[in-house]
């Protein structure tokens, strides 16, 4: 049987993916490859247990040959802010303010340093709280996109065996 073909970007590295599924891993599609398909309908997209209403939630930029992220997916930013809130690192208000700021940054330029900097400029009273979040994210960054990629690879493994 032929190996499944998997287009894999910076969300999950090939080494980690290969531990889950023996596949023919290829570089991700280039900008615009699926544009006609993704905009052909107004249907919502399903990722993991959530529903996305905008491509902006998962869009990122990266260094193509090295698969190094240059920006963060909004869905992952929301997720990490939620985790930090649940762990008492930030308040719910700081979480909401930070998400709003992140959403207003064009996706190729969306990163934690800029989100934190802009939030501190707009809301000086939460400066220290955001510095705690900065420390937290450096050590505890998580990714829903990576979790979903692993889940998909495990599923592909069950149907390709």
What does this 3D model show about the protein?
- By secondary structure, the protein is mostly helical.
- Helices cover 48% and strands 10% of the residues.
- The protein has seven helices and six strands; from the N terminus they run βαβαββββααααα.
- The strands form three sheets. The protein has a two-stranded parallel ribbon with strand order 1-2. A two-stranded antiparallel sheet has the order 3-4.
- It starts with a strand and ends with a helix.
Task: Briefly summarize what is shown.
The chain has 161 residues and is mainly alpha-helical. 48% of the residues lie in helices and 10% in strands.
How many H/I helical runs?
A: 7
| Broad shape | elongated
Radius of gyration: 17 Å
Poorly predicted sequence stretches spanning 5 or more consecutive residues = 35-52
Structural class label = mainly alpha
Arrangement of strands in the largest sheet? 1-2
Main sheet characteristics: 2 strands, parallel
Let me know the number of strands. Answer: 6
């Amino acid at each position: 049987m032929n190996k499944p073909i998997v287009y894999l970007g910076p969300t999950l590295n090939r080494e980690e993916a290969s531990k889950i599924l023996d596949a023919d891993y290829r570089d991700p599609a280039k900008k615009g490859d699926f544009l006609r398909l993704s905009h052909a309908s107004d249907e919502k997209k399903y990722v993991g247990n959530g529903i996305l209403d905008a491509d902006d939630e998962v869009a990122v930029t990266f260094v193509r040959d090295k698969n190094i992220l240059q920006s963060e997916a909004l869905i992952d930013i929301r997720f990490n802010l939620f985790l930090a809130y649940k762990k008492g690192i930030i308040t719910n208000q700081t979480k909401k303010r930070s998400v709003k700021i992140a959403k207003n940054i064009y996706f190729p330029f969306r990163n934690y340093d800029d989100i934190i900097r802009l939030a501190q400029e707009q809301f000086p009273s939460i400066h220290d709280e955001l510095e705690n979040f900065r420390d937290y994210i450096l050590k505890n960054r998580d990714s829903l996109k990576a979790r979903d990629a692993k889940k998909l690879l495990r599923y592909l493994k069950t149907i390709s065996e």
